[in-house]
Each structure stands twice: as C-alpha cells, then as structure tokens.
Design a protein that fits this description.
With 266 residues, the protein is mostly helical. It is built from 11 helices and 4 strands. It has one domain: Cytochrome Bc1 Complex, Chain D, domain 2. The strands form 2 sheets. A two-stranded antiparallel ribbon has the order 1-2.
Length: 266
C-alpha cells in the first residue's frame, strides 16, 4: 500500500506490504493449524511445571497472569497465558520462541528449524506511510475498541480499514482474513499468523503495551522497534533446556493456563 500524506487517501497496490507473500502459500495449504502438539513431541506435564516454577514464573507469574516478580521491569509486559488470545497460538510457535528467542523466529534465524503450524509474521512498519500525528491518533482510536463508544475519527477509521483490518479484523478482534483464512471466524480458530494478531478488545492483553510501544511498533515494526528502541522480547532458552524440556514447558502452559485445567498430584 502507498499512502499519500498530502491527500490522506490510500492507494491499494498490494495486499499488505510484505505480508502478501506468506498469504499465498497459506491459501494453497487450506489446512487449519493444530495448536496442541506438545504431547506428541514428548512433553511431560509435571516436568514442565517444575521448569516453569524455576525459570518462567519470574516474568509470566505463578498463575500465568503475566505478573511475576519482575514483570514491571519488562516492556512490553510479559505474555498473559490465561488470556483467550493464547488459544489462537500454536505449540510449534511457542516451542520455537522458547528455544530460539522471539526475534530469531520472526527473522527466520532458527538453524533450519521451521514452525510447522502457522507462519511466523512480524508486525510491519508504517512509518513511511503515516505521519507521527496520524499514528498517535490511530493508537488512541485503537485503544477505544471494546469501550462503549469510539471517537468519531474518520481518518483513523479509514487507515485502520485499509492497513490494519487484514490482520486485526474490521472490529479489532484479531480475526482478519490473513489469520483466519478458511476458518470460521465466529468459532474458536487457530491463527495462521504466529503470533496471532492482537485482539484489541482483550483488556489484559492491551494492558501489556503502553502508548509509546504501540506508537513505535506501528512506526518501525516489531523487529525494528525491538532493535532500535531496545524494547524487550522473549529470549532464547535453547542453551539451557533440551527439546524435551521445552516441549514439557509448552505442554504445562497449554494445559494449566491456556486450557485452564491444572492438575493436582494424587
């Protein structure tokens, strides 16, 4: 897409910047991704719980609420595992992020390892298309999703519809055409884009991001905002944990937090 700052009109020349190419490969596959693969890959729930209690809880919290002992020192805030958002994320993606680190997964620097279910996709930059004032207005407008009334901002509405809705959905529910593809958006779906596009209506997820991060994320894109502005991201743990250990953590997170079915030892 190309945006004219003088006229304020969107001229559609591509589906969505560099996001168009992965969509074509997804369309050819036509198979909704499977979220739960940790069990098949040898993940052990109790082993995962032990490792989570030693390493992961400090950021993500004992209850998976993203509020561990050091959560206030991290920006954006740690992922909230108990959020409905996580049901759209696949085990393959979570495994890859723990093993290689989020930026390496999004940059495809994973030593030949590929995410099987879903396509790792970073938020692109819109800094060349939008002026800073437009981005700030857009952030404010996006924040209003889920509230009783949205500001009457025709320009932000137009920008969102043309540039953001393909991923984030027309109503900001994270159910655009690219993550949903051939699935029914009215039913629980697994996102073809990993991580899933944000559902702006989920308060516990949106609380992770301050306005500064959202501004730079739109302006620079997810990879650049991390590298240039030094925002935090999930680091790699592949040097500390073997694959079975990581699958065990993923299985524990999936069962205890995402599915909400923690076990009790007999």
């Amino acid at each position: 897409m190309k945006f004219s700052k003088k006229t304020g009109l969107w001229i559609v020349v591509a589906c969505s910047l560099s996001l168009a190419a992965p969509a074509a490969s997804l369309a050819a596959r036509r198979i909704p991704p499977n979220p739960e693969t940790a069990k098949q890959n040898g993940g052990d729930y109790w082993r995962g719980k032990k490792i989570y209690g030693e390493i992961c809880f400090s950021c993500h919290g004992v209850k998976g609420d993203g509020k561990g002992p050091i959560w206030r020192t991290v920006m954006p805030r740690p992922q909230v595992f108990i959020s409905p958002y996580m049901k759209r994320m696949t085990d393959d993606y979570m495994f890859s992020v723990v093993k290689f680190g989020k930026m390496n997964v999004l940059k495809n620097r994973t030593k030949g390892h590929n995410v099987i279910n879903g396509v790792p996709t970073a938020m692109p930059s819109f800094g060349e298309a939008l002026e800073d004032a437009q981005i700030r207005k857009l952030v404010k407008w996006v924040r209003s999703f889920g509230k009783s009334e949205q500001p009457k901002d025709a320009q932000s509405r137009k920008i969102f519809a043309d540039a953001c809705s393909q991923c984030h959905g027309k109503k900001g529910l994270g159910d655009g055409t690219r993550p949903v593809e051939d699935q029914d958006p009215e039913k629980p779906f697994i996102s073809h884009i990993q991580p899933p596009p944000m559902n702006y209506h989920l308060k516990e997820q949106m609380a992770r991001f301050d306005d500064g991060f959202l501004f730079w994320n739109i302006k620079l894109g997810r990879i650049e905002v991390t590298e240039l502005k030094k925002y935090d991201f999930m680091k790699s743990y592949g040097h500390l944990l073997n694959d079975k250990d990581i699958w065990s953590v993923v299985r524990y997170v999936r069962e205890a937090f995402i599915n909400g079915k923690p076990r009790k030892k007999k």
